[in-house]
Design goal:
The protein is α+β, with helices and mostly antiparallel strands. Helix content is 39%, strand content 13%. The chain binds adenosine monophosphate and magnesium ion.
């Protein structure tokens, strides 16, 4: 395990041509203090967790001191925002401090979000508020705990910095990590500028850096596009299966690694509602829960178009279909697991759709229902009352549960084993908005960060019952004000 000074950097992105990024130093806050530190992420980069106790730690991760060997830069990209192409975005408030190579030879980008102005800040202030930083920090780790590909969170640092949104708020910086921050929009910017040579350099870079097994195949660029389509299809199926929505599925927020990137507005659905829109600024519901799979398709088409100068037309056309097939199959497999089913039977998809329809009409809590279904007993329907109580339309649930029971019997599915399996497929705890909100309020009002750490710990294992955390599995108290999440962050 290394000290901060001994981290080993290998800044591959900084070696790309000038037009790919802009070198810029972070702008620090006065009096930085660590809000939270995640030792699991520190391990990934070979950093000794004890290092977080040193006073220099906050200085390094608020940009006051530069880690030796880092080469800070803001990456260039463009993107389709809510369906409209914006020719230049880029890191307007996030600065890539550098890339760390760990002892296993893996590389991790260290990116500091909220680190000040860059050439790409446009009208923004280069800052992030503590509120949104806490939301991103916790959700990255909560998704990881659920087994969903995501950026990881190393730490959050705040300081004496007031940031103006609708009102003055404390600012903060988030250090997040992923093997690569390249986005669909990183390709789009060169395509729409007609800089096809840069497009090729970027594709070669991504292959060498993140898809090395493609370096020697025929048609590597087509293979790259197809792998991204597959990974994105798997990702969005996983989001759907846990009831999670990305609030801003613009192409600049789509990772070339197929992982969850850029947590602005997001939400775990509580009461099942296919029209759930987690982003208050998304007035037309473009990124509603049920639209997300189609938006994934749209985004893969946008990436395919951006890569078209490098790839044969038939391969371009195949990418969205590959995405769709993967999304549909992965989702079906995940839902089958959520129901505790083992084999594939005709009619399984309909069993799922019909269940979701009755959940929709009863606004059943998505997570708690599936967790409670673990208790379903095939030979004593009366003992399923607690499950049934989650539905307003009781006969509809009776019909469905009779079909479910038959389906279980058809494969000789045993309750006890099914329960164990389902406990690993249906989380007990999800990052509900009111839980994050409580952590945000304690942090912003009382400078008390204990709740953040409690949640961080809880979500490392959301599948295991934690008896003293029972209240964290409950939906918000009835009658409580809904929490509004928007693009303001
Ligand atoms: P997002 O919707 O958060 O993914 O951001 C879209 C674009 O706006 C990216 O280029 C961001 O870097 C930029 N951006 C968002 N907030 C700010 C800010 N406060 N200051 C500068 N740029 C920002
Ligand atoms: Mg973004």
């Amino acid at each position: 395990m290394n000290t901060l000074e001994k981290l080993s950097f290998d800044n591959t992105y900084a070696r790309l041509p000038d037009g790919f990024f802009h070198r810029v130093q972070p702008t620090p806050f006065p009096n930085p203090q660590v809000v939270s530190f995640n030792s699991a992420a520190a391990e990934l980069i070979g950093l000794d967790p004890e290092e977080a106790k040193r006073p220099e730690f906050a200085e390094y991760f608020c940009g006051a001191k530069l880690l030796q060997g880092s080469d800070p830069l803001a990456m260039l990209y463009a993107g389709h925002q809510f369906g409209h192409y914006v020719p230049q975005l880029g890191d307007g408030r996030a600065i890539l401090l550098g890339e760390i190579r760990n002892a296993k030879g893996e590389t991790w980008d260290l990116q500091l979000k909220g680190a000040g102005l860059t050439r790409f800040s446009r009208d923004g202030d280069g800052r992030a508020v503590l509120r949104s930083t806490i939301r991103e920090y916790l959700c990255g780790e909560a998704m990881y705990g659920l087994g969903i590909p995501t950026t990881r969170s190393l730490c959050m640092v705040s300081g004496e910095e007031i940031v103006w949104r609708e009102r003055p708020e404390p600012g903060a910086m988030l250090l997040r990590m992923t093997p690569s921050h390249v986005r669909f929009g990183s390709f789009e910017v060169f395509f729409y500028r007609g800089q096809f040579n840069n497009l090729k350099i970027l594709a070669d870079y991504v292959i060498q850096h993140d898809y090395p097994h493609l370096a020697t195949v025929d048609n590597p660029y087509a293979q790259l596009l197809h792998e991204v389509a597959v990974r994105t299809g798997e990702l969005i199926a996983q989001w759907q299966a846990v009831g999670w929505s990305h609030g801003v599925m613009n192409t600049d927020n789509m990772s070339i690694l197929g992982l969850t990137l850029d947590y602005g507005p997001y939400g775990f659905m509580e009461q099942f509602n296919p029209n759930f829109v987690c982003n208050h600024s998304d007035h037309h519901g473009r990124y509603s829960f049920q639209n997300q799979p189609d938006i994934g398709y749209w985004n893969i088409r946008a990436l395919a178009k951006a890569m078209s100068p490098l790839i044969e037309e038939t391969e371009i056309l195949a990418a969205p279909d590959l995405y769709e097939k993967t999304m549909v199959n992965t989702y079906a497999g995940l839902m089958r697991k959520k129901l505790g089913l083992i084999d594939i039977h005709a009619g399984d998809d309909k069993l799922v759709t019909d269940l979701l329809n009755i959940m929709d009409s009863s606004r059943t809590d998505y997570t708690n229902f599936f967790r409670s279904l673990n208790q379903f007993q095939q030979d004593s329907p009366n003992s399923n009352a607690k499950i049934k109580d989650q539905f307003i339309h009781r006969e509809a649930f009776d019909d469905w549960s009779a079909r479910y029971c038959k389906r279980l019997q058809a494969e000789n599915n045993q309750d006890a084993e099914r329960q164990l399996r389902m406990n690993r497929s249906n989380p007990k705890y999800i990052l509900r908005n009111h839980l994050v909100q409580e952590a945000i309020e304690q942090a912003t009002r009382q400078n008390d960060f204990a709740e953040i750490d409690r949640l961080l710990h809880l979500f490392t294992d959301p599948f295991t019952e934690q008896p003293d955390m029972e209240s964290y599995a409950l939906p918000p108290a009835s009658g409580s004000e809904p929490i509004v999440v928007s693009c303001s962050s």
